[in-house]
Amino acid sequence: MNNSTQNPLTTPGAFLIGCNYWASHAGTAMWSDWQPEIVEADMRQLAQAGLQVLRVFPLWSDFQPIHQLYGGAGRPQQVRFGEALLPEDETGQAGMSIEMLERFGCLADLAEKYGLKLIVGLLTGWMSGRLFAPPALQGLNLLTDPTAIQWEVRFVRCFVKHFKDHPAILAWDLGNECNCIAPVPSAAAAWSWTATITGAIRSEDHSRPIVSGMHSLDEPDDNGPWRIRHQAELLEVLTTHPYPYFTPHCDQDPVNTLRNLLHATAQTRWYGDCGNRPALAEEVGTLGPGICSEAIAADYLRTNLFSLWAHDCHGLLWWCAYDQAHLAHAPYDWAAFERELGLFRIDRSPKPVVEEFQRFRRFLEGLPFKALPPRLTEGVCILSHGQEPWGAAYASFILAKQAGFDLTFQYPDQPLRPSALYLVPSASGGASLPRHLWLQLLENVRQGATLYLSHADCVLSAFKEAFGLEIQTRQKRHDLAEICLSWLPGMPTLTLDAPVRLDLRPVGAEVLGSEQDNNPAFTRYDYGKGQVFFLSAPIEIYLSNTPGAFHGAGAQPFWRIYQRIADRRLGQRILHKEHPYLGMTEHPLDKSRRVAALINYSPDILQTVLHLADGWQVIESWHGALPKNHRGAIPIELPANQALVWLLTEQ
What we know:
single chain, Rossmann fold, Immunoglobulin-like
């Protein structure tokens, strides 16, 4: 697509920090209430905070202030600027305001002056719960009406042509959450709108990547109108807006605990993996003091910075630069959760999150490399048809992290990726996996791979041959499932809601866990050179839907199941751990050197012992203290929501 290989948004391992920007004095009214001296003070302050990039928004109704005039019988007669004719020049015929373009040019110049790059949200018609459409287009479906799309294309081509040579601009964003602007009747309609706008951008500028700006793709499933793979087909960078408050399965535990601390990372990797594109955490925040304290917001930010960096998520942009509680106009008059989201308070004093950005910027600048090498991954998680993919993906990602391995995601109608470990979490329905993929999976297992499948209510062909189990009967459950993990010390019992009970008879499978009546529930079966694990309960969907399932006294050790299925697949790791709230990634620099990122995904001090492979040692720490022991068994004490970044070398 675009010639953007050197752009940090599309460079593997590169990472940017920044925020979404509206001027401190006016919010969405910044263009009509233009005060360049305040904008300059904002730019200076944001640069001093260590930020590298701002996402900015030319408000659609201000920049294209066209009015539709009508004739007899309500017939559209002419488009004007109020009563004034549109000028005959290119800008005027696009319905664009010269004054607003000059103001944006001033902002871009100030960004360049202070060393800030800009991601420009072109069609900002939706912002913080309010629609900002040009008067001429109000009442039209802005995503399907031909007249609306005609003026959108004119807006985009004019704006991009006007600013394509400005050095501050890093990327073009379609606009802020354009999938919220209007309903679309089909996925084809959403694709067509996206293709039209991306085509308009590329007609004027091929040098920069195009950023999606969307959120909530593939929700509730991948058959919805706005799809990860459709966005990925048409542009270079996918985006997530991972607010726990608005995202399914997330607003259940404190923001500084495991579930929510892995939300942004898991969702961004889901988009990036299934779309096969770079993905950016474009809007991150806690939604203010109604959710958590300022100090805990700083803990949340710190953990997410290290987590997103370690998982190649390209950046973190905070929402937003300044508090907006002093603003009386909508949307701030409407929505309480839009008013206190800034890095800086109304009096311009910094919140604790600012110091975290400054520290992380110093950390990045102190590294001996610009781009972090890819992390090692052990598994491929296949999100099957008939399920809500985000819930299954989210819990699988967390469980793998607890168990000490990393995975990537794919859908069942994508080519099967090579892997030594495959996971099919919470499979549902009678068409969960296509035949060709199922046969390829089994062939890969026959050649030595490991397959894990957990059962929600799916029906699978050749079940007995694949799992070494024969289904006797199937029924809906009337009570909770209780599964005793017999291979673990103490034989813990896991209790969960599982909609379907299968009465199973082993025909070659080894039983690793049983229900209270000895009905097999978790089994292992040798299949060719590989092995197949079957779990008769959908632990991933259960965990996604259950508050407190990952944190606190009631959290059960479901991650032990993932640890068991991966125990043969961790040989490429040189650093091993047991603690379920410690996440680790390994990044080979070359054959004898690796970067290890260790993150405490909990609000408590974490004490544990790591085990480093023979012949390796910790020789340097780029964040946090060096351990006293550099080899073998390494005791560590990691503060709450903190990280360690080490250099490991082979002796």
